Amino acid sequence: MDVLIKIKDREGTVHELQAPTDMAMNVMELCKAYELPVEGTCGGMAMCASCQCYVLNDVQLPEMGDDEEAMLSEAFYVKSNSRLGCQIPITEDLEGLELELAPEN
């Protein structure tokens, strides 16, 4: 089953992405699959913040882990709604999620 996730890129364009829930992907990998400008330099280990995004609506996300919290405490452009895309697994719970890519460091 696919879920719909909307992601606003750094130019303000909103992309409506079909995200498969059966491939063990995360939001960072989804962005890369659709060729959105997300580096994912560390390969999804919560060590670089190049996949930082802002959560724009009230969709239930998994709780933030210690590694993600530590990385965001050192990252640039962090807001109260910041998350690392690599730490958000794509599940059916994400249907309708709206995100905005954070500025590049």
UniProtKB/TrEMBL annotation:
This protein's name: 2Fe-2S iron-sulfur cluster-binding protein
Entries under InterPro entries matching the protein: 2Fe-2S_ferredoxin-like_sf (IPR036010), 2Fe-2S_ferredoxin-type (IPR001041), Adrenodoxin-like (IPR001055), Beta-grasp_dom_sf (IPR012675)
UniProt keyword terms in alphabetical order: 2Fe-2S, Iron, Iron-sulfur, Metal-binding
Domain 2Fe-2S ferredoxin-type: 1-105
